[in-house]
Amino acid sequence: MSFDVEKIRADFPILRQEIRNRPLVYLDNAATCQKPQVVIDSIVKMYSHDYANVHRGVHTLSERATAAFEGAREKVKAFINAQSHKEIIFVRGATEGINLVAQTFGKANLKAGDEILITGMEHHSNIVPWQMLCEETGAKLKVAPINLQGELIIEQFMALLTEKTRLVSVAHMSNALGTVNPVKEIISAAHEKGIKVLLDGAQAIPHMEVNVQELDCDFYVFSGHKLYAPSGIGVLYGKQELLEAMPPYQGGGDMIRKVTFEETEYNVVPYKFEAGTPSIADTVALGAALDYLSEIGMAEIAAYEAELLSYATEKAKKIKGLKIIGEAAQKGAILSFVLEKIHPHDIGTMLDSLGIAVRAGHHCAMPVMDFFQVPATARASFAMYNTKQEIDTLMTGINQLIEVFG
C-alpha cells in the first residue's frame, strides 16, 4: 500500500508530544480527532489577515471573508456530491443538524399517531430530539432492534416501516460499535413507502466516501471536529425542495430578506437556516480540512483504516478475558471492549498512565450498553494517522492491566 502514514503523522503537531513521559498514542478519534497544520494555519490566517463579518460588508475584508466562507460551502458540496450549494446548511455540529430537522421538518409534517423509526444503536443525539418531537406532536418513536453482533436486524427494521412512518433516522456508522448500516437498502425501502430518511453521518464521514446523490438520502448530518476540522462547525445536507418547504429554525440577522414590525420575509436557502453571525474561521477551516482529505483520498484512508481495524481485532482476540462489544460484518475503525473484573473507567485511567488515550464510558449510547448488559466499554478508535505500532502499544498496555488486576 502506498499510504504514507508517517508523512501524514508529520502534519499533526499534537502527536509529537509525550504524555506521562510516554509518546502519545491517541486512540479517541471517535470522540474527536486531531487537527492537521493546514487547518490550524487556516484559522490563524483568517484571524490575522482576512477576518470580518460575512455577507454584510462591501469593504475588502468582508469580501475576502465572504469568499472564503462561501468557498467552504462549495467544498462541502463537492466532498459529499450534493446537487447544489443551496443544500448545504452550516450548523454547530451533527447534533444541531438533527435538532434543526426535528424542529422544522418534524413539526411541519408530523402529527399525533405518526411514527419515527430509529435503531437500537443510535447516539443520544439521534434519540433525544425525536423523543422531544414526539412529546410535542403526539407522534411515536419506534426502535428497530439489533443483534448480539451489533448489527441491525434488517427484517425487523423493514417490518416496522408502515403507513404510519413519516421519518427514518439512522446512524450511517455507530459510534459505540463501529457498525456500518446498510443505508442504501434502508433508504430505498423507505422511499418506496414515501418516507423521508435522515442519516447521522458524524461517525461515518471521516472513514469513507459519502455521495449523498448516490445514497439518495433526504438529510445527512455531520460534525467538523470528527473530520479533522475545528469543533463548533458542522453540516446539514438536505434536498433543496425539502429545505425550501421547511420553516426557519431560528430568527435573526442574515436569515431574512425584509423585516417590518408587521411581518418578516425570509431569505432563500441555505441562508434561511443560518441566523446570526456564523462561526466564520471554523467554517473556512472545515474547507481546509476537506481539501486535505481530498488530497490524500477517502478510498485510501478507508483501506488503511480497515487494515488497522483488522490488525487490532486479531490482536485483541488473543487476549484472555477481553470481550469485543460489536462484531458486525460491516464495521468501521472502532474497537469497543470490556475486560473481566476491570471497570472500563479503570482501563481508561491506567492506559492514560502509559500515554494511551482511549474513551471509557457509555459513549452517549446508553441504550446500547443496556442491550449488551455492560455499564460501559473501553473504546479504541482509529484514524488515518494511527499505526500498527500504536496498536501493539495498546495491547501491551491491556496485558499489563490484566496483570496488575490479577
Note the total helix count: 14
Per CATH, the superfamily of the largest domain is Type I PLP-dependent aspartate aminotransferase-like (Major domain)
Q: Major beta sheet, specifics?
A: 7 strands, mixed
Radius of gyration: 22 Å
CATH topology value of the largest domain: Aspartate Aminotransferase, domain 2
Q: Strand share of the residues?
A: 15-25%
Q: Could you estimate the helical fraction of the residues in percent?
A: 25-40%
Overall number of domains: 2
State the secondary-structure class: alpha/beta
Spatial strand order of the main sheet: 4-10-9-8-7-5-6
Number of strands: 17
Low-confidence stretches: none
Mean pLDDT reading: 97
Instruction: Name the shape in a single word.
Output: globular
Oligomer: single chain
CATH architecture of the largest domain: 3-Layer(aba) Sandwich
CATH domain class name of the largest domain: Alpha Beta
Give the N-to-C terminal Cα separation.
40 Å
Question: Keywords for this structure?
Answer:
406 residues, alpha/beta, 2 domains, Aspartate Aminotransferase, domain 2, Aspartate Aminotransferase, domain 1
Gist of the model:
The protein has helices at 5-9, 37-50, 60-80, 94-109, 128-137, 154-159, 183-192, 212-215, 240-245, 280-296, 298-316, 344-352, 366-372, 388-405, and strands at 18-19, 22-23, 25-26, 88-91, 115-119, 140-144, 165-171, 196-200, 219-223, 234-238, 256-259, 264-266, 322-324, 334-339, 356-357, 359-361, 377-381. The protein is of the alpha/beta class. The chain folds into two domains: 5-30 and 297-405, Aspartate Aminotransferase, domain 1; 40-295, Aspartate Aminotransferase, domain 2 (3-Layer(aba) Sandwich).
